[in-house]
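Q: Structure for this?
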Amino acid sequence: MPIFRLLLGLPLGLVLVGAVAYPSLILVWHAFARDGRPTLANLAAVLHDADIWRVLWNSVHVSVWATLLGGAIGTGLAFLVARTDLPGQRIFRTALMLPYLIPPFIAALAWLALAGPVGFVNQLWMAVTGVEEPLFRIYGAPGIILVMALAHYPLAYFTVLASLERMDPALEEAARSSGASPARTARDVTLPLVAPAIGAGAILVFLRCMENFGIPAILGFPAKYFVLTTKIYATILDFDRAHNLGLAATLSLLLVAVAAAILALQRRILGGRAYGLTRAVGQPPIFSLGEWRRTVGIGVTVFLLVTSVAPLLAILLTALTRAYGMPFGWSNLGLQNFHTLFFKVPVVWRAMGNSLVLAASAATFAVVLAILIAYVQVRTRARGKGLLEALVILPFAVPGTVVALAMILAFLRPVLGLSLYNTIWIILVAYVARFLTLAVKPVAAAFTQVHVSLEEAARSSGASLSRSVRDITMPLIRSALVSGWFLAAVPAITELTLSVLLWSAGNETIGVMVFNMHEEGKVLLSSALAVVVMAVALTSNLLLRRLTSGLAEA
Amino acid sequence: MPAVELQNLWKDFHSVPAVCGIHLSVQEGELLALLGPSGCGKTTTLRTVAGFEVPTAGEIRIRGKTVSGPGHFVPPEARNVGMVFQSYAVWPHMTVEANVAYPLKLRGVPPAERRERTRRVLELVQLPGLEFRFPHQLSGGQQQRVALARALNMEPAVLLLDEPLSNLDAQLRKEMRLEIKALQRRLGITILYVTHDQEEALTMADRIAVMGSGVIHQVAPPEEVFEEPADRFVAEFMGCTTFLPCEVAGVNRVRLLLGEEAPTVSCPLPSGVSGRGVLGIRAQEAHLIRDGSEALTGRVTLRTYRGGSFEVRVQVGKHVIPLITTTPLREGDTVQFALGPVRFFPDVSCAIPGEVPQATVM
């Protein structure tokens, strides 16, 4: 069926080559070329720059500390939730997802509202003590580490929790029967068995910290504290510097190399130690907290109130403040900022429209491609399936800043007569490439579950190929398509890292709006818009969750 | 003194009863099989003995010592009860030796003795030389033996086995039955064995406790449970596939009610029984006869070959009776046959416990 193959292969090839392979190669080329000739000048310039080494150190420094802190918090909470009689389990299970649902740059803004130089805590501290010095300095490494750890610990929490819940309870019961106390069981059996999950969770946190742009941008720029992602951003925008894009490309490869090295290290360490703990039947043994039960419960509650609720409350209050810098009080609260935002700043509506349209169209493209990709992966014996998979994962596996730079380099000049740069299309291409893998996962899973014999039964009943796909396959994978669409659309709505480098006048996204307003020092307006973004992120995520959990039950 | 004693043991899950006031004692050196369909409460019973479930009411004594009773609960690690799990629960991060030696390590046995005892017990379960393998390098059957060795190594007061053979293939299962039985004889250990497989229970157990819906229907040696099931539930579990309506027609005689035909057959009856009931029949026990006073006549409706013999279905009136024979009958043949030993269950026991609507809890 050559036509069938062409129909399948052409759009796939076009997108994967145009949006992934070509930009990747261009990025590598620019890292090792100047003025169209191959050279190691960019590499030399980067390696001889003491500033770059400090930036690299900063990246590793904040990521390692945020990983240790976030990993410890996530692991500890997972143990408390899965293996102890912690009171209020059900509420905690939901509440611990909260930081995961809020875009990191919004979290950074919220922390700024709470603990920034003129945040509520410092204001209160200075008012109460009369001291001129703020209590916290949130700008710079400590603040970045703290906010990164608190934004990313859910990744460690989910990973360890899943491992604890998948573990066969009999493994721990066998230790108890052998004569081990609950504490001894935890030490000898539970902990060694979840160690690979703790490691995997920590790696996830580390990679997210390394690639994060929003937090170090918001909390690092004022202190002139740069990490790799923000340095790449600054280098791209440093138009006066010669070969700035080439240098940025070299930095990008450096960033990818660090991430890849960490992943390789994880494979080395954990390679032989991933236990197939997938036979959970019955209740795992519960470690009684005894007299500490109440104290621990209160501790977790306070932790959540301070780390999740307080920053959100702070940014909400900032958004509701009428005049910035005036003493806090009921008379200084109102909806004025929201009014200004929605009725005086026309760009806001445009940005929201752009974000929604971009997210919806990127998700639609992604789902259509996902069907083709899943079909090829699951149903055909086509050669190069490994390459296909790699191209799908690549734009999500590398930092967003790198993806954005690759897009700039690839589409700076018209390609095949199409000029994408400075248009909304370059953002769309970037989004499709970046979020494609999110849509592919559920669709490929659905294809795997819909056994080919179901289609074959339709064929032998007399249905044509297209008829059997329409009558049998499509209805069975429809729910996966819907969840794939939402999985790709939800992160796209509040996206910042890509669009902050790819936007142009008239083509702002809502994330870019918040970021720019913040950079321009419009604290009240950026807070108000951040609250809007937060509301959008929370509702869309809850919608997604309801949708996907409903599908899991069906 | 019994090794294990359960007195009026109750266990509710969210106020749904799983075990309803059972009494049971396991003698020292005995292999007692707790047999029943899934959801009958047998695993729950076992887990209360192990200490993984806290009974709602009742008392559990191990070697005379109360481990669970009103206001009193001994945690699993202090009961010295060895357990072999259905999933084996061999720790994947430890070698075979570390797995098997773990109970000894906890009991402070010095390393040299630990190693020696572990070596011996591995020999006992026929796993010598695999000390330094990891579980993922072992087959399912070998993991099973590691789990058994680990439980034996602690010289438990009682060994609890929870469907230990259900994840093995048929051939290996048969081998392991004999092996566990031989081991139990040789070491004189006490075993409480949970299974839903009647053949397993019959071949291995010294006594069988048949359980259904949280109550024990019968506790007796295998032959007795098989030959003289206490009620219809036990009979069904012991392979009585067909139940025919009948009524008492005299001393040790019942009349079958099969539509137009109403032959009487002899059947052991408890004294003073009367009225209607059912007769339990096994296909293996029904047999063809040329003629006789108790012969039934019917027509063969289906014949299947089962290797060396045939199973035929014989239609008598509105009822179908299966029988196994080596005579190559054809479908449509009219045959005369006897039911063999039959068991009468009065109407009161017609309410099959297994059929009573119940929450299935394990």
